Amino acid sequence: MAETVWLFLGLLGVLTLASAIATMLSWKSRRMTEVLPSTLVNLNARIKAWWIMIGSISIAFLFGKTGVILLFAFVSFASLREYVTLTHTRRGDHFILIGMFLIIIPIQYYLLWIEWYGLYSIFVPVYCFLAMPALTAISGDTERFLERVSEQQWGIMLSVYCISHVPALLTLSIPGFQGKGLLLIAFLIVTVQGSDVLQYVFGKLFGKHKVAPKISPSKTWEGLIGGIASASLLGASLAWLTPFTVLQAGLMAGLACIMGFFGGLVASAIKRDRGVKDWGQMIEGHGGMLDRADSLIFAAPIFFHIVRYFWAA
Amino acid sequence: MVLAGLARGITGVRPIWQGCAPSDRQRIFFANHCSHGDFILLSSSLPPRERQRTRAVAGADYWKRNKLRHILAKDLLNTVLVDRNWVERSEDPMVVMLDALQEGSSLIVFPEGTRNMTEEPLLRFRSGLYNLALARPDVELIPCWIENMSRVLPKGTFLPVPLLCRVVFGTPVALEPNEDRKDFLQRARQSLLELSPEHRKALNHG
């Protein structure tokens, strides 16, 4: 697929440019002071992590459907692990927790692999939703029951169900777009993650008015509007990857980015509630897997269902 | 080696060298104890060279109870087995531990003596730590707080839940001249408690 090659060449170019700029900024600042300011250290770490993340996505793409499904099963595993670490668990929950990792994740991704839409779209919200509290009740420990059960269900919904809608795009059959599902995934990831980066850049450059000062000090209206507007333009310019027209691509990108913003906001609210700054330390400079995936979690299911409703056969 | 890799894969463990740095010195790591996974987690967060010469001290009465456990503890995990039972013991635990130190090994000890199943963050320390400090003042005593392992592998279970764990290494504690047993154990226990997240939280809010 020529499109994939062009896309990855483009990403390679952007990353090289970012690395070059960061190296130049570091070099300039090192001439003035001995120690790098923390923003620059963080910027360097972030760009390095992007190389690794884009590298892993490229490798997954090389292996096609299987690669992408395995990659996102791993993303689910890492996200769920970060999430559960921050929740309240009791000894009676032990087997449910193991089941979340060893049973629910494999089943959800297996259902995707065999493309059984009728089941993978309800497996978590119907079957797991009912089975988990039932099994918890059997264990007999009622202390903080509702809280424990809800936290487990949230974890599964966010880290497994919602994230699995990214590879689910591969199962859609779109007339005139057969066999190009990977490009749709690339479009979603590039626009949503691009919007995160652009929001960060616009926020750092022009940010003044905070959107939700109680939740996140780094989210500003300037960053939000600038980021989403530019990411929509980015999406429009990537229309050639998709079954959309240029206008549709821009709108879909904008919608995904707005959802992504809410995902980040909700994730921040949970982190604030638990008194932590990041979900983990897995991805240097970014925090944990969930710090990177939070926007995709909210964007993917909506993006999936709109594409399915309007474009899929 | 395999176990260390497995432990890291499941718990994504991160060593936090808060009060000391990895080194080639002979050391005794003393830690809180809630789970069988504790010492595997602790040793897997040491750098390879330090890990290789570090052996855990474990209760012989538990690990010799059946053949499988014995093989596991002795050959696979290379632990230093000591008898906790005062009446029927055949070897003096102090002699066994000092022998291991004599051979140049570093040790991991759990001064609470058993896995802590209570709501208390840390049980009272047994006196072994004091005796070790007295006999080998040249060996550094490092407090290590193991976080979350009790949730990964609670007592009585054998399948671990993957959760993120941390091991915090604190500032070495040394026996002061004329310090008596009780004071020293109290101070060592306090130095370990201060590494716990509850304590750090209390500090941040105070």
TrEMBL record, chain A:
It comes from Phyllobacterium myrsinacearum. One of its GO terms (molecular function) is nucleotidyltransferase activity. The keyword Membrane applies. One of its GO terms (cellular component) is plasma membrane. This is Phosphatidate cytidylyltransferase. The chain crosses the membrane at residues 49-74, 95-113, 119-138, 158-177, 183-202, 223-241, 247-270. GO terms for biological process: peptidoglycan-based cell wall biogenesis. Keywords: Membrane, Nucleotidyltransferase, Transferase, Transmembrane, Transmembrane helix.
